[in-house]
């Protein structure tokens, strides 16, 4: 019973995305909010990947 | 490894010379020279590889692995499993989110490599193979969306077919043929992606990671092995950690958001929901005036949707390859299989034996009465007029649709197993009901629908450029929009893959200067 409940929880969405989507309109550009979030996330991740310092380990001459 | 010096080899000098010239020997020596084990599985790497931007390559590869495993499980159990069982739907969610992660990481990886001008030092092939891998992956994902078997798949296939038809490949790559698209998705395109990604990885390992801009005195030096500082690098450990992270992210996203599952539209559902639209569409199919009926190649010799690139129509050159006669295929043939209905049989005989002029007169009269058409239950009512047997035929079309028999009749006209949905999809797309559902979900062309998914899920944002061209004049108003957009995309694709060879464009990374941030540790080290 517990296993069945766990399975139902895992395979059902915690956040339900069913229903009319939200869309952004800017001039002739139209985009779903979900797509826009993905694109913004990509830009943010690129920025963070560049600016966050990479952990250093001592390097030596080969 | 066998040391040839330690064993007695009984062969002549002539044999040795012959062996030296063997294709196998030459290939082995080339592989040994280009890819010794310490390059394939290195334990150190140049010290300048010191930025988080470098992890996106291995994250992309890991996501590809999760895509392959989740796709493999879906293939193992088959299409009805992911459609009908919660477990199957969950694995479908894993597949969807691993694909989203794959593209996410690949795009960041690609941007990073662009700003590092990673094609320097004879690494152009690595850039080209990466660009091609990205584009083939878009194709693989697109066929995946077509294979979902939900409303999104139906709509994408009916809209995308025009682009394929406009460049003459619609009959050979038929988006409405589920069986064909499924095979492309699970075999041909993944195979191609893996081969190209393999070439890309071999290129990266053989040539090494590109040194920082300005780190070497001569342009040629960038192609030589790095002679500067190195640091320890455990490639296997890095790969394992990346796979774990991507797997956990995929599971988390699937648990939190699941995946879309808007049921497909059937002709039965359409006929019940909007019988008037169904009947007027069926009447236009009978008259041959519907979009499909007057489309042109590859379906028939109509001219309604024939596109030209200047004076050339690739669509016409490819010719009629999937013959469709809308009157026969969508109306007369399905009605002819209705059993035990002598009145219908007589109506069919009256229509088919009438002269083309009489048929046209009946069809035109019925089309004029369209606006006054009423549907009550399974029967239609039109004002009195000279329609011949058309009202009787439409009555029976509606009955056939309402029972679900028309779906089956259009799908499997001549065979038991059916995987080709060209006819029912063309028929449904000719009506207004399917488009109204697509409009609600922002899937239509003028809504940038190609990028969108049903409900609130993200779709294919990587198609933004392709979608954008349709919104801009002259494409937004042209009858040749598809062939124009496809041509632009072909040119841009060639340009994208050829960036290492395009003066001006290939210098953008140096002008933008983001590379200074990426390699700041190296430059700081050099200064000190």
Automatic annotation (TrEMBL), chain A:
Q: Which domain of life is it from?
A: Bacteria
- For the keyword Transmembrane, the answer is yes
| Keyword terms, alphabetized | Membrane, Transmembrane, Transmembrane helix
Give the residue spans that cross the bilayer. Answer: 33-54
Q: What is this protein called?
A: Uncharacterized protein
| Taxonomy of the source species | Bacteria, Bacillati, Actinomycetota, Acidimicrobiia, Acidimicrobiales
Automatic annotation (TrEMBL), chain B:
Which top-rank group of organisms is this from? Bacteria
Q: What EC number(s) does the entry state?
A: 7.1.1.8
The EC class name is translocase
Q: Which cofactor does it need?
A: heme
Residue ranges of every copy of the Cytochrome b/b6 N-terminal region profile domain listed in the record: 27-213
Mention any one GO cellular component term assigned to this protein in its UniProt record. Answer: membrane
List the protein's name: Cytochrome bc1 complex cytochrome b subunit
Species the sequence originates in: Ferrithrix thermotolerans DSM 19514
């Amino acid at each position: 019973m517990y296993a069945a409940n766990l399975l139902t929880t895992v395979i059902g969405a915690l956040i339900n995305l069913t229903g009319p989507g939200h869309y952004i309109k800017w001039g002739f550009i139209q985009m779903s909010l979900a797509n826009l979030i993905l694109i913004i996330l990509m830009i943010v991740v690129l920025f963070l990947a560049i600016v966050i310092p990479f952990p250093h380990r001592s390097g030596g001459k080969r | 490894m066998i040391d040839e010096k330690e064993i007695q080899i009984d062969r002549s000098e002539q044999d040795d010379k012959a062996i030296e010239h063997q294709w196998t020997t030459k290939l082995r020596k080339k592989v040994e020279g280009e890819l010794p084990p310490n390059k394939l599985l290195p334990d150190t790497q140049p010290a300048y590889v010191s930025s988080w931007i470098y992890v996106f390559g291995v994250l992309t590869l890991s996501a590809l692995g999760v895509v392959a495993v989740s796709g493999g499980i879906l293939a193992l159990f088959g299409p009805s499993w992911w459609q009908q069982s919660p477990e199957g739907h969950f694995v479908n969610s894993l597949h969807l989110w691993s694909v989203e992660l794959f593209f996410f990481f690949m795009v960041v990886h690609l941007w990073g490599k662009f700003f590092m001008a990673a094609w320097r030092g004879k690494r152009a092939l690595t850039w080209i193979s990466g660009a091609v891998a990205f584009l083939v992956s878009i194709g693989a994902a697109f066929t995946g969306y077509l294979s979902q078997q939900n409303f999104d798949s139906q709509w994408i296939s009916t809209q995308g077919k025009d682009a394929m038809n406009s460049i003459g490949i619609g009959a050979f790559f038929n988006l409405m043929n589920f069986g064909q698209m499924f095979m492309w998705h699970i075999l041909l395109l993944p195979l191609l992606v893996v081969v190209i990604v393999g070439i890309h990885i071999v290129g990266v390992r053989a040539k090494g990671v590109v040194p920082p801009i300005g780190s070497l005195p001569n342009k040629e030096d960038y192609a030589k092995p790095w002679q500067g500082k190195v640091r320890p690098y455990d490639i296997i450990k890095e790969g394992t950690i990346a796979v774990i992270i991507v797997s956990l992210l995929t599971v988390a996203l699937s648990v939190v958001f699941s995946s879309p599952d808007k049921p497909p539209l059937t002709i039965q559902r359409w006929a019940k929901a909007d019988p008037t639209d169904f009947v007027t569409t069926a009447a236009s199919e009978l008259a041959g005036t519907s979009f499909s009926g007057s489309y042109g190649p590859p379906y028939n010799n109509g001219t309604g949707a024939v596109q030209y690139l200047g004076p050339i129509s690739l669509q016409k050159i490819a010719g009629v390859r999937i013959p469709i006669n809308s009157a026969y295929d969508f109306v007369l043939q399905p009605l002819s299989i209705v059993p035990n209905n002598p009145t219908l049989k007589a109506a069919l005989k009256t229509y088919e034996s009438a002269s083309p002029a009489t048929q046209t007169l009946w069809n035109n009269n019925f089309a004029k009465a369209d606006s006054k058409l009423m549907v009550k239950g399974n029967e239609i009512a039109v004002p009195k007029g000279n329609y011949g047997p058309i009202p009787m035929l439409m009555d029976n079309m509606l009955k056939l649709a309402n029972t679900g028999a028309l779906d089956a009749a259009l799908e499997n006209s001549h065979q038991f197993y059916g995987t080709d949905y060209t006819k029912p999809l063309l028929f449904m797309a000719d009506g207004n009901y399917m488009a109204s559902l697509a409009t609600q979900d922002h899937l239509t062309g003028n809504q940038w629908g190609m990028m969108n998914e049903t409900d609130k899920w993200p779709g294919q944002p990587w198609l933004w450029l392709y979608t954008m061209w349709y919104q801009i004049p002259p494409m937004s108003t042209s009858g040749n929009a598809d062939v124009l957009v496809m041509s632009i995309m072909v040119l841009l694709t060639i340009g994208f893959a050829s960036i290492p060879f395009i003066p001006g464009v290939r210098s953008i990374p140096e002008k933008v200067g983001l590379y200074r941030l990426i390699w700041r540790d190296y430059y700081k080290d050099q200064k000190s």
